[in-house]
Structures are given as C-alpha cells and as structure tokens.
Amino acid sequence: MLKEKIKELAKQNHEEVVRIRRHLHQNPELSFEEVQTGKFIAEKLNDYEIPNEHGWAENGVVGLIEGRNASKKVVALRADIDALPILEANEVPYKSKNEGVMHACGHDVHTSSLLGVAKILNELKTEFDGTVKLIFQPAEEKMPGGASLLIKEGVLENPRPASILGQHVHPPLEAGKIGLKPGMYMASADELYVTVKGQGGHGALPQDCVDPVVIAAHIVVALQQIVSRVARPTTPSVLTFGKINSTGGATNIIPNEVKMVGTFRTMDEVWRMEAHRRMKKMAEGIAESMAATCEFNILKGYPFLVNDEEVTQRTKQFAIEFLGEENVVDLPLRMTAEDFSYYSQVMPACFYRLGTGNTSRGITSPIHTNTFDIEENALRLSIGLMSWLAIKELGN
Questions:
Q1: Which of 11, 145, 225, 357 is found 20 to 30 A from 381 (Cα to Cα)?
Q2: Domains in the chain with CATH codes
Q3: Residue 29 is a catalytic residue
Q4: Is 376 a catalytic residue?
Q5: Of residues 29, 141, 376, 393, which has the active-site annotation?
Q6: Which of 94, 302, 342, 352 is catalytic?
Q7: What is the pLDDT of residue 247?
C-alpha cells in the first residue's frame, strides 16, 4: 500500500532530514545572499540523482521528478530557503554559526523537508503518474520577494503545474498536527516610510519652532482612524508603526525632522489602494496644517494569500487519510504575510501549517524570535505528508 510505503520511507529518512535541517540551521544566509544554501540544495539533489537547475533568482534551485506518464499532470512543491537578521539565543549543538543571522522563521525546516520529500518521491517515481516540480525559493523575507522574481523568470512554466503546495512551521500547533484554511488566509503587506520635516530649536522655546515630534504623534494617532472608522468591518486591516526616530533631538532640543516606518495590511485590493490614498492625503494635510511638510512613501509589497477552495479541501481530506482526523485542524485568518501569495494569485494553491511545538519540552517560542526552535519529530510527519499530498494531488 502506497501510504504505508511513504510512512516507512519517512521513518527511514527522518535522521538524514534532521541532519540536513541542523546543517542549514547552523549556516543561515539572509535574503538574496543564499549562495552556499543554494549550492548545498543542488548538491543534495544531484546526490539523489534528481535533475535540477541552480541559479533561479541567483540562488534558487528547481528540480523535477518525473513519474510514469510524466506529462499527465504536474504539481509544484515550494520551500523558502532564506534566514532572518536575528542573533540566536538558543544554546543547542546546531546553533547558528553566522552571528546575527538565524533561521527564526523555520525555512531550514521547509528546505530540509522538501529535500526529504524529493528523496521519497524519487524512490517511488515508478509508482505514480505525473511530474513533481520542486521549487527551492530564495528571498521570501525581503521585498520584492523571491516568489515574484521566480514567476517572472518562468518557474511556473515548462512544465506548468496544475497546482502548488507549500507549508510553514507553526509553533502553536503540537508536532503531529497540521492546520489549514480554505479561501482568504493571509494579508497583503505594504511598507510605509514617513518623514515629517519641521523647524528645530530649543525645547523651552517651542513657539519659535515647528515641532515635528508633536506633528508625527498627531499623524500616527489620526491614521488609525482609517482602520477603525473608514475600513468596512468585513475587511480586516492593520496599520502599525514600529519605529520612530528624530534627527538631532534631545531632552531640550526640538529636532528638525522625524522619520517613521510602519506596515499596512489588508485583504482587499480595492480597499488597499484607497487606504494608500487616504493615508498619504491625511498625513500630508496634518503636517501642512501645522506648518510642516510630510513625505509619505508607500512600498507596495506582497498581495494577499488565498487558498484555492478545491485544492485546499482536497489537501485536507488527503491529510486526514494520512494523519487521522484528530490531527488536522481548521485555522483562522492571519494578518501576517507570505510571498507564497504570488503563487496563489496566478494558480490554484494551498499553503498549510505544520505543527512544530512541544509544550512538554518547552518548545513554544514563536517564529521571528531569538529562541525559536522546533520539535524535530515533526520532520518525519512533514516529509511523509507532503509526499502523500503530492502523489494524491497528481490524481494517483
């Protein structure tokens, strides 16, 4: 029985995938800098005798596993390979050797998992019809996003997949479980860069100045009305400013300018553009009314991620067959963003969450933190499940 073969192969390959994950975790590379990571992936695929091309968006790797009747149907599987600029605090044997860089978002898990899947599927290629395209994608963490670059380079052509699957670690879920949500799932993400320019001077003589700190504070508070008073209740939106700096200010010095950076996220493209217009107009108007100027720049980022209803329902059913109904859970909307969204905009896609937590062992730290880690038993489930999903999605 194919399912049992996959589970046995997942068990046999688990230790190797753990070793791969630990190697990647020790040697993280930032977005657009994944030179050694890309070489490592290509070398592994070569070892597995899987045809591949290295150099997509410079550091990405794409492999093909052709089963029987290879042209019948194609399914793509995607893993991201880059790390984050975080100084790791974990004291583990596989701690990052690249100080200030860490796989704190689990891309080491995604990459090692897809390599494990590649090995399993290659061993089973005489037992399924169709082709599996393996996409090891760079630069998920940094705009414009590696997914957008790979799509422009033609990663979804020659051969063109009928659908694409991706997974992401999820510490709130215990290892052994996965989570899904059909339809709208994750938000778009835009970066905001705001500069308020006034006239600095002595802190005790504000009447002789145009205080950009006070004006910036007015702008931050006022802009929240766009989310709380203008956005429709049915359209989730988030506006957050995460950093505010002044140039030359002190306890008794009013600075000449204040810079702010933030993010705007939503799930409706028409509203997204309207919100951009309103934010810019409101900020510039407030500054002008207070004798200052405001430069409001918006860097449009990733679109929203939508899980195709049919593909996701199939994925859920296939996962229940493999894991049992009690280990497949429904997930809510998330206001986080992912450049897998670019794939979901152009073809049927399903992006699901892999449980990696272990409460009893204290493995609970969220992603993007310096203590993030995983329960490595999750890797056995990961490689087995994704292999099963690929074969089932091909129609076998």
A1: 145
A2: 2-186+303-393 (3.40.630.10), 190-299 (3.30.70.360)
A3: no
A4: yes
A5: 376
A6: 302
A7: 83
